[in-house]
Amino acid sequence: MNLAKATLVELKSRFNVYDQKINWKVFCFIFCFTIGAWLDINGLWCELPIMVAELPEGWKLPSILSASTQIAQIAPFTFLIGRRLAPKLFTYVNVIYVILSIGALSCLLLSFFWNTTAVIFNQNHSIGLIVLNFCLALLDGTSSVTFLPYIGTNFAKEYIIPNYIGESLAALIPSILALIQGLGQDPGCSNITDTLTNKTILEPNQIKPNYSVQLYFLFMFGLLCISTLAFTLLNFSSIAKRERKNAKINQRSRTISEKSEIEVSPENAINSQTNLTSTDQQKSQPSTVSVASNRKEQVFLLTIIFWVSFLAYGTLPGLQSYSTLPYGNNIFNYAVNLSFVFLPFSIIFSIWSYEASVRQIAIEFSIVLVFTFYIIFLSIASPCPPFLDSWFGPFLTVFSWILTQMMYMRIRCLVAARLERFGEKVLLILGTLTMVGQIFGGLIIFLIVNIYGLLKDKDYCATDFHEYCY
To answer: How far is it, in rounded angstroms, from Cα 192 to Cα 203?
Structure first.
């Protein structure tokens, strides 16, 4: 009891310290703005249960969309080159307005053309969905090298937390909308008689959502408009301007200047001069050990970010259908949407622990790797994963997806909070490695699934798994 009380007191104390360092209105501006970072892509993935059932690619659709997303990473690299060659044109503000506009327009078009197909290389493909997913990925990929550096450059590190809260809400909101839509139902199969052969076969029933995919993407369009409005307030409102780093520095400078006008005694003046001389001598002899330690920390944390992106945003998305659909369409839906629903909790918890040590980050990364490898194992074992005839199999699958998504998001937040003190350049490197990691992960999964066909699906209406698997 005493331990619990002491823990609550400690948490309250940490929250009070955090509360004194931020302005809550600016906090809200930031998370409303960063909702636009991955809202559209997350929203599209939440609709996969209905899309996989209706579109011609079937189980291969997630890996195709993942590959389309990785190809779109040319946009962030274009931004980085443009920022070096024409920095006045490729400012964070200009580029963010452009990509938010592209994302909003793409969501509007998706509501009308998501199921448009065309024959390419003698195969029917969802051309509307793939092309517009590419356009959405232009937004989300570029946000990796613009949103966080913009916030880290202009605001204190405490405002990195609402950045990731916004990203997690970008997953939570589409998930709730998808659950309300009723995609968790398992439509089952019906006997259909083939008129040509006079044979009766089982065909999957069409999923009937509570509201249409078109209305769903119109919601996404509206949310991106709200994100754009929040970014405008973050740039031009007086409240946000007062929270900027340069404004805080100017305020501190004025305070110091006022204090320096106070008369000091000769003895204090001599002591002050002595302290300044001592400080200058210390600065003239920087600690080699400290510099080397900082460099090792940066390399280690940036390496973790690469592998987090490789696995969380490159590898795992293409494996969603293979790791969950063998247990049923409802398990696919729960794994996708519940993992997004719980994301904000991982970031909100980070308010009390955003100054985590490198060791703690390494331990949490090691834990999440275990569940990541289990998901990969399920995909390899598809369509006959373990515990197929038990409640434990579906439960462990959904739990693994929820935990991996929560922990990967939290690790990204903790790493960014530690690297913020090293400046804008390191934050840009962090964003770049986020892109590179997901590019390699997504392309590898695309090759495994679509080129080499190493993962297997199964007939949706196969009911006797013993006969099917053995």
So the answer is: 6
DSSP-assigned letters across all residues of 32-49: HHHTTTTHHHHHHHHTHH
Residues contacting 386, CB < 8 A, separation 6+: 378, 393
- Residue 272 clears pLDDT 60, i.e. is over it: no
Question: pLDDT digits over 83-109, tens only?
Answer: 889 988 989 999 999 989 988 999 999
Paired strand residues for 118: 125
What are the C-alpha distances in Å from 284 to residues 248, 278, 287? Answer: 27, 10, 10
pLDDT at site 69: 83
pTM: 0.71
Q: What is the pLDDT of residue 269?
A: 46
Separation CA 133–CA 38 (nearest Å): 12
Cα angle, residue 266 at apex, residues 264 and 272 outer, rounded to 5°? 70
Q: Which element (helix H / strand E) includes 159?
A: none
Instruction: Give the per-residue pLDDT at 270.
Output: 46
In angstroms, rounded to a whole number, what is the distance separating the alpha carbons of residues 436 and 145?
12
| pLDDT (0 to 100) of residue 3 | 72
- Cα–Cα–Cα angle for 106, 110, 112, rounded to 5 degrees: 130
Q: Look at residue 52 in the predicted model and tell me its pLDDT.
A: 79
d(CA 394, CA 292): 47
- The H or E element spanning position 183 is none
Question: Highest mean pLDDT range out of 39-43, 101-105, 207-211?
Answer: 101-105
- Whole-number pLDDT of residue 42: 82
In 3D space, the residue among 400, 329, 388, 443 whose CA is nearest the CA of residue 58 turns out to be 329
Please name the residue that has the structure tokens 């839906």: 333
Is residue 292 within 8 Å of residue 406, measured between CB atoms? no
Residue 59 DSSP symbol = G
Q: End-to-end alpha-carbon separation of the chain, Å?
A: 53
- pLDDT given for residue 277 in this prediction: 46
Q: Are 217 and 128 in contact (CB under 8 A)?
A: no
Dump the DSSP string for 409-468.
Answer: HHHHHHHHHHHGGG-HHHHHHHHHHHHHHHHHHHHHHHIIIIIS--S----TT---HHHH
In sequence order, what DSSP letters do the residues of 86-153 get, joined into one string? -TTTS-HHHHHHHHHHHHHHHHHHHHHHTT--EEETTEEE-HHHHHHHHHHHHHHHHHTTTHHHHHHH
Q: Are strands 118-120 and 123-125 parallel, antiparallel or unpaired?
A: antiparallel
79 vs 6, residue with greater confidence: 79
The Cα angle at residue 204 between residues 203 and 208, in degrees rounded to 5: 140
Report the phi/psi class of residue 212: left, alpha or beta, with left for phi > 0 and alpha for psi in -120 to 50: beta
